[in-house]
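User: Teach me something about this protein's shape.
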Amino acid sequence: MNLNRAPLCSLLVVLLVAGCTQQVDSVKDTMGNMFKAKDEQSEALKKAAEPTPLDEEFKSSIAIKKVWSGRFGKGYEKLYLKLLPSWYGEHVYVADRDGRVMAVDVATGEKTWEERDKKRLISGGPGAGEGKVFVGTSEAQVVARDAKTGQKIWIAEVSSEVLAAPRAGGGVVLIRTGDGKLYALDAATGVQKWVFDRTIPTLTLRGSAAAVIHEDKVLAGFDNGRFSALELATGKELWETRLGEPKGRSDLERLIDVDSEPVILDNTAYIDCFQGRVAAVSLDNGSLEWTRQISSYEDLAVDTDHVYVTDEHSVVWALKRSDGATVWRQKGLKNRRATGPTLYGKEIVVGDFEGYLHWLDVTTGAIVGRERVDKERIITPPLNIGAALVGYSSSGEMSAWRVD
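Assistant: First, the predicted structure itself:
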């Protein structure tokens, strides 16, 4: 009897193992298909995010001439810091991460003066005005220098790292800090006049939008997607408007951040917001004149007829200034990490991650010119200095261009 049971048990074991093997194979097939689908999805997403290649046969249809060029300091050390050049009087002022501040003659590109503070890491600026040049540091300090000589005038303490360029006017200098505060310091002495505080969300974009002084108001966007007007003399909030509402469950999905400077024209402020809207805001009461659901963290540009925006995917838009309707879109720079646009003559100009400047026709959006500043990325918008346009790379290479 026992001898007869043995083959039966063996048969059952074989059948069970065979069944398990089939189940395992089925699971393997299912998992394999799942991973294959995910891989295909991942490849599709990767392909969609690839930078648009530049046409190697492209020839500019406008006459662009280099006026001067040079390397000024070491730039940002590959950190995402908007150490943008500042034009004031007869000089362009630049700063690098290693504590250097330099004055460069706008006409010749020659360095007028250079000062270095080895003890301080510059994280915001420079900003120029009120006869001075201001920089902010990672050590939560603001340093003011004489614009003509570079001589250090004062140092002020703030609450956190400075991540935006100081803005000066009306006897004050405005400082944005990484913990959500906006300071007004006396431009002559560095003494604090007032501070405005905003609670910051758990997750924000690296950097802050510089505040803007307009007549008796201060205009500033914040990391929570709000845009406010403050009284210049006291810091009292006059009005506030929302540029976006958090959506989704995760902190990343709910991230709303104003990381650009407002542009003021005819009593209206134009501003954009990451995962929010491009908006025209009345300076009288903060009411929204129009909005467009376009996500951007770059500065925008405005002329009589249009608002120009670089969205989060580096698609450049022209919108009607009157109502926000689309005039044109330029997708030729998609995913090239384009900067915000700068108006220069009959074109707008943006920089990209390979150090190129691109000139776009304001009427059609067609790319009509291209020049290279450097092989390193251009993070900040080009600077219009009147007679020329200045491009500045993350490694400290700077050049001036004009269109004949």
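Now, about its shape. DSSP finds one helix and 32 strands in the chain. Residues 2-48 form the longest helix (47 residues). If you'd like, I can walk through any region in more detail.
User: That's plenty for now, thanks!
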